[in-house]
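Worked problem 6 (solution included).
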Amino acid sequence: MRYNCCMANESSGGGAELEHLLAQLLRMLSPELTKASADARPSQDDNDGMPAVSASEARALIELLSARGIAQGELAAVLALDKSTVSRLAAGLERKGWIRRGRDDENQRYVRLYLTPEGRELAGRLWQEWRSRQVRILAALSADERAGLSAGLGGLVRVLAAESLLDRTADARR
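Solution. The predicted structure is:
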């Protein structure tokens, strides 16, 4: 199974399309939503051993979980961040022991970012936390509200894409 911020699950009652649309919206809002989660955590590991992780770190780790090795420039495009920002982000993740840099197997000129075993475990936990939040949000809505939300978000995503405010190519990789 491929993990990412847009995983859809028919079992929540909202349908895959609604979950997909909600995930897109949550990705757009993720700095604030992930900040709220990080702010709720102490700066040290909390009781369940989950370290404090910034919004950018969480998104990068989840993308790396899905990509299984990605070039820094590709990660910058997926996260919609400047290459220099991703360079600093990757350096910080590497210092924390969550990623490693390695040469591309097919082209040794390229350096790719890979999760370490610790990074893979953390990314999986972050993805589960993200997924649980999405399921809770949808479960709190009635069937009529989910149907209305699905139609409304579908229209919003369409208009944002038409205005070039939403990268549909990044979504197609999911």
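Discussion: Residues 79 and 156 are 20 Å apart (CA to CA).
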